[in-house]
Design a protein that fits this description.
alpha/beta, binds NADP nicotinamide-adenine-dinucleotide phosphate, Quinone Oxidoreductase, Chain A, domain 1, Rossmann fold, 2 domains, 20 strands, 454 residues, 33% helix
Length: 454
């Protein structure tokens, strides 16, 4: 049986809020459509010819009802209480470097279930917290009523290449970026192997903001698949109060490393200090000009950064946590210690990077690539959140209706940490089921980024 969208969603929300049992939740009929944030294929050329900064997600991201897709046997319907903005939603909404409809078309060719994704709209979002409403017939470990967070590694577990490190799977994808039915919505369809338990001491929005960036930073720094940081390592972290950097700093501090955080304001330097990162560089004050013009890098500016790092911690970085890309990669390779590692997962400022290869080979440095995290890594990173060892880096919260504005803020680097989005949750502060543990971890620690964003 199906009902209209609004009465059903109200019934689901009432049930979640009143702590209804899984059976009660499973008995609520599902709507035929649900409210979601999406871009339209027919608008993929809307920003043609504009500079990236003028491509405004507020014009391309729409919030409206879309059809609820059928559920595959290995999937679940999740009532999404909250989600978060990731930079991949910036890329999708400005159609750079490519419109994401090509990803959906390729997924659509893979199987009957894949074909559901190839639509003329793309529901975006790669993070979420919520409650399971239904499980497919092949789902074993999860049930309606389970409170979950969702990681974005989307793999076909019948593919042999997915069975060592699933990030090496030949058809590995990022949910809500390279698949449809993402998390910036009131309902979502996810594979059972994307589910993880929601940390009980966090609100819906605090729980929703972690999985993508926290797991990525965990793999980059802690995992044997990344830089495998050890006690005492000096780690240079670009964007150290950004989405990735805010977790990276915590991993370095927890793991006995020595973080050197690069940020772009005195307020962010203060935030770094509160995270236990004493060595901070305010790049806006230093005004490094690694590129003297569009084609030429200035080695003396790389040296100036290196000298600033040595002045703070007395030595060169064992690890450079790299993601800005073109603007910083030359400097990152230069400042890494002899034998050090530059671990990179992105290129926000441009992916055609350039560095002086002599500094790489003569000093036996390495560049290690990294991309999201496998299920094990995401699970271990989520466990550290649940244990209160890693804190959410939520700084601001928007309603789903203002997803365009939230995405614009991330695009323009006006935020710190993560921006959360309330989906079904009617207000902030809901969803904590273990208040005693929250008190033990400490409100101040959990909301450190929120206070900066206030
Ligand atoms: P974010 O929240 O915007 O943080 C990035 C930070 O980098 C900014 O806050 C800024 O900090 C700094 N930054 C930006 N441009 C810079 C530049 N030209 N030079 C130096 N610093 C710069 O974004 P995020 O969530 O951390 O993601 C960063 C990048 O990683 C994005 O491109 C994203 O798509 C990518 N990413 C990749 C993966 C993956 O699995 N491969 C996962 C997550 C994210 P300051 O202004 O304070 O210096």
């Amino acid at each position: 049986m199906t009902l209209g969208y609004i009465p059903v969603m109200e019934a689901i929300l009432d049930a979640v809020q009143s702590g209804a049992s899984g059976d009660e939740l499973a008995a609520i009929p599902l709507p035929e459509s649900y409210r979601a944030a999406f871009v339209r294929k027919k608008e993929a050329e809307m920003f043609a010819g504009l500079p990236s900064s003028d491509k405004d997600p507020r014009n391309s991201l729409h919030v409206d009802e879309v059809a609820l897709p059928e559920l595959a046997p290995d999937e679940c319907y999740v009532a999404v209480m909250a989600s978060a903005i990731n930079f991949n939603t910036v890329w999708t909404s400005i159609f750079e470097p490519l419109p994401t409809f090509g990803f959906l078309r390729r997924l659509g060719r893979e199987s009957v279930w894949g074909a559901r994704h190839d639509l003329d709209y793309h529901v975006v979002g790669s993070d979420a917290s919520g409650v399971i409403l239904r499980t497919g017939s092949a789902v074993r470990n999860w049930a309606p009523g389970d409170r979950v967070v969702i990681h974005c590694n989307y793999v076909d577990d019948q593919d042999p290449s997915a069975h060592d490190d699933s990030m090496l799977a030949s058809n590995q994808r990022i949910w809500g970026f390279e698949t449809n039915f993402g998390g910036l919505a009131e309902l979502s369809v996810v594979k059972a192997n994307q589910l993880m338990p929601k940390p009980a001491h966090l609100t819906w929005e605090e729980a929703a903001c972690n999985a993508l960036c926290n797991s990525t930073s965990y793999r980059m720094l802690v995992s044997k698949n990344g830089a495998c940081m050890k006690q005492g390592d000096v780690v240079l972290i670009w964007g150290a109060t950004g989405g990735l950097g805010g977790y990276a700093v915590q991993y370095v501090v927890n793991g006995g490393g020595i973080p050197v955080g690069v940020v772009s304001s005195p307020a962010k330097v203060k935030l770094l200090e509160s995270l236990g990162c004493e060595a901070a560089i305010d790049r806006s004050e230093k005004a490094y000009r690694f590129w003297s013009d569009e084609h030429t890098q200035d080695e003396s500016e790389w040296r100036r950064l290196g000298a600033d790092i040595r002045a703070l911690v007395g030595e060169d970085p064992d690890i450079v946590f790299e993601h800005p890309g073109r603007q910083t990669m030359g400097a990152s390779v230069f400042v890494a210690k002899r034998g050090g590692v530059v671990v990179t997962c992105a290129a926000t400022s441009g992916y055609m990077v350039e560095y002086d290869n002599r500094h790489l080979w003569m000093k036996l440095k390495a560049i290690k690539s990294s991309h999201f995290a496998n299920y094990r890594e995401a699970w271990d990173a989520n466990r550290l959140i649940s244990l209160g060892r890693i804190q959410p880096v939520l700084s601001a919260v928007f309603p789903l209706a203002e997803v365009g504005e939230a995405t614009r803020q991330v695009q323009r680097n006006l935020h710190e940490g993560k921006i959360g989005v309330l989906c079904l949750a009617p207000e902030e502060g809901l969803g904590v089921s273990d208040p005693e543990f929250r008190q033990k971890v400490g409100e101040d620690k959990i909301t450190a980024f929120r206070r900066l964003g206030a």
